[in-house]
Design goal:
The complex is a heterodimer. Chain A is built from 18 helices and 16 strands. Chain A is of the alpha/beta class. Chain A has a six-stranded mixed beta sheet, sandwiched between helices. A four-stranded antiparallel beta sheet of chain A has the order 2-1-3-4. Chain A has a four-stranded antiparallel beta sheet with strand order 6-5-8-9, with helices on one face. In chain A, helix 1 packs parallel to helix 4. The two termini of chain A are 38 Å apart. By secondary structure, chain B is an alpha/beta fold. In chain B, 64% of the residues lie in helices and 10% in strands. In chain B, strands 6-9-10-3-11-12 form a six-stranded mixed beta sheet. In chain B, strands 2-1-4-5 form a four-stranded antiparallel beta sheet, with no helix packed on it. A two-stranded antiparallel sheet of chain B has the order 7-8. Classes of the chains: A alpha/beta, B alpha/beta. The interface between A and B is large, with 160 and 160 residues.
């Protein structure tokens, strides 16, 4: 991301982004694009020929016929017939180019969307932690929308305008040099005026964008807290605050739109004025017979001048949307340019079994036995290490920012099948430790070994497949409950899904839902209580059946009585697995093999419940309620 | 729908009406100009009459300036009217939402209300501006250009009569047939956004289960569907241009062909021919414009519908009329055979047959499992929802007879899912009492055990609170929310699981402080921890929407099975905990 540090001028950035966008489109739709340009040229030629034809008609056919009084229309009919053919070609070209633009435009949008999403999936968790969800979402909505505008409207219009300007200019020169010079003069005025208005308009549009952001932010915050507003009878105050912001937005919008709205009539009227002046000047020239100016030439010239101004006002109208689209495009490219998660691992996870000689070998079927397939250092072959779920940290340091270390010298051993618990205040580093095990983040210093293998050597996908994780904030996906549980293991049979739900204690409430397991969840399962969502999340982890599990406040919203009921299932779920548990409620972790108390990124106490109580340290204080955890 | 929306124009009516009037002026000039030019050519240039040329030339320049004036003015009024209309729409919707009962908010859902207030309004605003400017301009342009064409061209102008219906029908067919496709395409668009949203917020789950490719496949599927729909709609729209050009060129050819013959026959002048060509362009341009407006209106129709829906939603709960009771006598509460269901469906009652008598000043604890309707029960007291059966009295008067503000000011409730707003600690506290002094705030915060940590902040009561209160911890947030409620000096205080993130010791201190200093206030505490409620005067055990038992801690421990179970589930080695609290 070279653009991040220096702040390039607006013009600079625009050009770079524009170039890149055009290359993006061209590399995928080059052939079609060339065809579009050809078609545009044909339509422009048709238009110009149309303007010139009036001159031909008057000077070569009507005037001579009027003069000679002849009634021979063959010449005329040939001319009109020829024009008809040209028109036909022009219309076909126009249709073809419009259709092609649709497929280029929509195709490009689809490719950009797909590329963004695919790339987004490869980004490290850090990206999601440092960018607000709203702003990531807006790449898919606002930014892509402005691009649609630009690709399907602005680009072809600007192209056709440029081609038109060149062709019409040639035609004007051909028709009358004097009048062309005059047109250039008035053109300078038009360009100057529309440029002035355009830049004003752009400034106010920026201000409008800010005001919109402000109002939208306010609305989001207040509607989010609407229930609190009502409980406190704060409606009138909320209305007053809203009015203030709404008023400001209205003002900014009025200014921005005024300039944008004035642009067209101004350019149009100046064009008309120019048109009139050409008529006057051309008329004078024709009467005086200067430079061989004919009546037909003046007539054509007048039409030409219209065709000359039209594209210029078109371009000035498109300017705003191009500026906005390029800003959107640069944000999209910034997302696409984000560094994906690095993965240098080459150790993979495979199903395994013991062969006749009791040696571990790879096999295709599910055996419930897993092995790490480790490439040998000395030759091309592999050896297998049984997955047991032993995790060791050696002097691990870590910081989300390199200059702010949040974990210091963390050393811990999780024997296969042990239950390890972390206790500590918010920010003590509990979740951070689990983030390191599944490599959502990479450590700064120290070593982490998984079954004796450096976890950096394990392919991330395989590492994560070996770990099940249940988080406090449950993310469910639009779809049925069945599909949501099956998310843990896509090939799970219905029986496996039911068994997992049963184990998690979720089955009873699912049965009570109108469609049972086929109840469709929308909006992330908005209809369910937080506790029910947590039960589903546990079921999802149960069906995945991973050898190691991380439970990060997984039962925090389940009431103690239900938790007790779930406990049995949880215990059988945890049996034989290495489990890392983070919980606020000490009752959840009391039976852990090892409890670690964290404070400001350091492990300050470790031991089982009885030992820690006996020590009368921090854990004891927490346990007796003498110290606050939040 | 249009009637409902147009009520929001209000003070911008003048601009909204002025715009089309000004546009008419502009259009008349635009139509006049080609006619004047035709005269200029025929009687000035062709006749070599310089005086005439000057005179008409002057008229033409004048016409251009007038047109510019009208055009610019119309641009200004249109901007004013549309921005103002949008402002009023937002305001009306926002005001209506302020009147919403909880059930109304639940029905629409927060994100949907936000979208209606933002995206939908700007869609409608665009269409509105288009309508007052172009929708007037195009037909007038069309009619006057036609009129002038007949004036100038005489029977020549009949070629339009043939062309216009063909074009009009064609454009209509295109515009109406794309509507259905667009509608479907926008639904795909919503689905696509939902997938992105879920992936962004659930990225940890996606990555943990290594489902990146699964999600990418899902996304691509929808993305491809969307591509198909949008493409087919736009391809149909692409027929607009060739259709229009085809008609235009056919008309041109006719004009050239017949016009030339007529000039030679002496029926038409060269100037007339040129004006006709200009009018032809104007006619066809305005038709094309009309078809674009048509498409635009069709596309914003969905937004307009969604806005109307929100505007015409009547709040489920309102203050009774003039006879409303405006004073709450005391903090006594009576539930009489109360039943409640969120859907209004009596078969799926969340709460049923609740009979309860609470004396003023009493402390009541409520406990029960997930989904036992604890929150539902207490939310009925300040009328956040209305009962579906039976009635509730506060201070001896049915809650539905109180002025809503009076009732809610006397019943302070700390919600389970509570929110702090961006601002300072003080500005958040003042939600409870606008005019609270620093002393009053400090006192309330002391009761809520919040003063200590506030004093530890560098800016004390003026410390910034970020949106959603993300820069204070969960326990601090809960204590601030309690202090905010205390500032209302309520007769009834309801704490709905509002100390879950506060440690047991501080929790006990809060309760003690409330018991000592707010002795007259009725206190209802909903909790999951037995320790939070065990000293209450009475404890209510809720199970599946019914009262399972009422009594003191000791009574319930002896008689109520559920209570005993909950107690035991929290007692595993927790004897020290009780010891510490007492």
């Amino acid at each position: 991301m070279p653009q991040m540090n220096k702040k390039p001028g607006l013009k600079n950035l625009d050009k770079a982004t524009f170039g890149r966008l055009m290359r993006y489109i061209f590399s995928r739709h080059g052939g079609k694009f060339v065809l579009v340009v050809v078609c545009i040229i044909i339509t422009v030629v048709t238009n110009v020929a149309n303007s010139l034809f009036l001159s031909t008609l008057i000077d070569q056919h009507i005037s001579p016929m009027l003069a000679s009084g002849s009634a021979d229309f063959t010449g005329l009919s040939r001319a009109v017939g020829g024009m008809a053919m040209l028109y036909l070609v022009g219309v076909l070209a126009a249709y073809l180019y419009q259709r092609l633009m649709v497929s280029i435009g929509q195709g490009t949008l689809k490719e950009i969307r797909d590329e963004m999403f695919t790339h987004m999936q490869s980004l490290p968790i850090r990206y999601f932690d440092t960018h607000s969800h709203g702003s990531i979402m807006s790449h898919y909505t606002n930014d892509v929308d402005t691009l649609r505008q630009m690709i399907s409207q602005s680009i072809p219009q600007v192209f056709s305008a440029l081609i038109t300007i060149v062709m019409v200019f040639c035609a004007m020169l051909y028709t009358s040099v004097y009048l062309t010079m005059f047109v250039l003069l008035t053109l300078a005025v038009i360009v100057f005026v529309s440029g002035k208005i355009g830049s004003n308009s752009a400034r106010y549009f920026m201000r409008q964008q800010e005001a919109i952001g402000e109002v939208n932010g306010f609305i989001e915050e207040m509607i989010e807290g609407q229930k609190v507003v009502q409980v406190f009878c704060h409606e009138e105050q909320a209305k007053a605050d809203f009015n203030e912001k709404n008023e400001a937005l209205c003002e900014a919008m009025t200014s921005a739109n005024t300039f944008a709205n004035i642009l067209m009539p101004v350019v149009g009227s100046l064009g008309n004025l120019q048109y009139v002046l050409i008529a006057l000047l051309g008329g004078a020239l024709a009467i005086a017979g200067i430079g061989g100016t004919t009546l037909g030439a003046v007539a054509s010239f007048m039409t030409l001048s219209k065709s000359f101004n039209m594209p210029i006002s078109n371009v000035s109208q498109q300017l705003n949307s191009i500026v906005m689209a390029l800003a959107g495009a640069s944000r999209i490219f910034a997302l696409i340019d984000e560094q994906p998660e690095a993965d240098e691992g080459n150790v993979t996870l495979v199903n395994a079994k013991f062969d006749q000689e009791d040696a571990l070998t790879e096999c295709a079927e599910e055996t419930g036995l897993w092995a790490w397939k480790v490439p040998n250092k000395e030759d091309e072959g592999y050896h297998y290490v049984q997955l047991r779920g032993e995790v060791r940290f050696f002097d691990v340091d870590f910081g989300y920012n390199p200059d702010k270390i949040v974990l210091h010298d963390v050393t811990l051993y999780a024997e296969p099948g042990q239950k390890l618990a972390f206790v500590g205040a918010t920010g003590a580093g509990k979740t951070t430790i689990t983030n390191l095990i599944n490599r959502f983040y990479d450590i700064a210093d120290g070593k982490i070994r998984y079954d004796g293998i450096n976890i950096n050597k394990i392919k991330k996908a395989d590492l994560r497949r070996s770990l099940g994780i249940v988080l406090q904030d449950v993310s469910l996906f639009t779809g049925t409950i069945r599909e949501n549980i099956r998310y843990g293991k896509l090939t799970a049979t219905d029986e496996e899904v039911y068994a997992a739900a049963m184990l998690a204690g979720a089955d009873s409430f699912i049965q009570l839902l109108p469609d049972g397991y086929d109840t469709v969840l929308t909006g992330g399962g908005a209809g369910l209580s937080q506790g029910q969502r947590q039960l589903l999340s546990i079921a999802r982890a149960a069906v995945a059946d991973p050898p190691v599990m991380i439970l990060d406040e997984a039962t925090s919203s389940i009431d103690t009585r239900t938790e007790k009921i779930v406990q049995q299932g949880m215990d059988s779920l945890m049996y034989g697995r290495t489990v890392f548990v983070i919980a606020h409620r000490l009752s959840t972790i009391q039976n852990s093999d090892v409890i670690m108390v964290l404070e400001q990124g350091r492990i300050i106490e470790r031991g089982n419940h009885e030992r820690l109580i006996a020590e009368r340290g921090k854990y004891y204080q927490l346990y007796t309620g003498a110290f606050e955890l939040d | 729908m249009i009637k409902r929306l147009s009520q929001s124009v209000r003070e911008y009516k003048r601009d909204a009406i002025l715009t089309p009037v000004l546009v008419v002026g502009e259009v008349i000039m635009d139509v006049l100009i080609p006619m004047l030019i035709s005269n200029l050519i025929d009687y000035g240039i062709n006749a070599g009459n310089m005086n005439y040329i000057y005179r008409v030339g002057f008229q033409l320049v004048l016409a251009c300036l007038i047109s510019l004036f009208f055009g610019a003015m119309a641009g200004r009024t249109a901007a004013k009217a549309s921005a103002g209309f949008a402002k009023n729409l937002r305001q009306d919707m926002y005001y209506n939402v302020q009147n919403f009962a909880f059930s109304n908010i639940d029905k629409f859902s927060t994100p949907s209300i936000v979208t209606r207030l933002t995206t939908d309004v700007s869609n409608v605003q665009m269409s509105f501006q288009m309508i007052i400017r172009a929708a007037v301009r195009s037909p007038i342009m069309l009619v006057s250009a036609l009129f002038m064409a007949f004036q100038v061209g005489g029977r020549m102008a009949f070629v339009y009569i043939a062309a216009i219906p063909v074009l009009g029908l064609g454009l209509y067919w295109i515009a109406s047939s794309v509507y259905g496709i667009f509608k479907r395409a926008f639904q795909q668009y919503d689905r696509l956004n939902a997938v992105v949203q879920e992936n962004v917020s659930g990225i940890r789950v996606v990555k943990s289960y290594v489902r990146e490719n699964f999600e990418i496949e899902k996304f691509r599927g929808i993305s491809a569907d969307m591509n198909v729909d949008f493409s087919s709609a736009e391809k149909r729209l692409a027929l607009n241009m060739p259709l229009m050009q085809g008609c235009m060129y056919s008309v041109m050819l006719c004009i050239y062909w017949f016009g030339s013959r007529m000039i030679i026959g002496g029926e038409l002048t060269t100037g007339n021919l040129m004006s006709l060509v200009t009018y032809t362009m104007q006619v066809l341009m305005s038709l094309n414009m009309l078809s674009m407006i048509f498409v635009m209106i069709i596309m914003s129709r969905a937004s307009a519908e969604r806005i109307t829906e929100l505007l015409s939603e009547t709040p489920d709960i309102h203050s009774p009329a003039a006879t409303a009771v405006t004073e709450v006598r005391d903090g006594s509460i009576t539930f009489k055979k109360v039943g409640f269901s969120y859907s209004g469906n009596a078969e799926k009652e969340s709460l049923s047959g609740v009979d309860l008598e609470i004396r003023s000043g009493e402390t009541i604890g409520i406990i029960g499992g997930t989904g036992s309707a604890k929150s539902t029960l207490v939310q009925l007291i300040p009328r956040l929802y209305d009962v579906t059966e039976g009635n509730i009295e506060v201070g001896g008067v049915d809650v539905r007879e109180y002025d809503l503000e009076t009732l809610r000011n006397s019943v302070a409730m700390v919600l389970q899912k509570n929110v702090l707003f961006s601002g300072t600690i003080a500005s958040n506290l003042r939600w409870g009492d606008e005019n609270a002094t620093l002393e009053e705030m400090t006192e309330a915060c002391k009761h809520a055990q919040a003063d200590d940590f506030i004093q530890a902040f560098p800016d004390k009561y003026d410390s910034r609170i970020e949106q959603g209160g993300t820069n204070v911890s969960g326990g601090q947030k809960q204590r601030l929310c309690i202090a905010r409620a205390l500032l209302k000096k309520p007769k009834i205080l309801i704490l709905d699981d509002s100390t879950s993130a506060v440690d047991t010791k501080t929790d006990a201190m809060i309760r003690e402080s409330l018991a000592n200093d707010l002795a007259d206030t009725t206190k209802i505490i909903v909790a999951q921890r037995i320790s939070s409620i065990q000293e209450a005067d009475r404890i209510i055990v809720l199970d599946e929407g019914r009262i399972n038992g009422i009594g003191t801690h000791e009574e319930l421990l002896a008689s109520n099975e559920i209570y005993r179970e909950v107690f035991q589930s929290q007692q595993k080695g927790g004897d020290e905990e009780d010891a510490a609290n007492e």
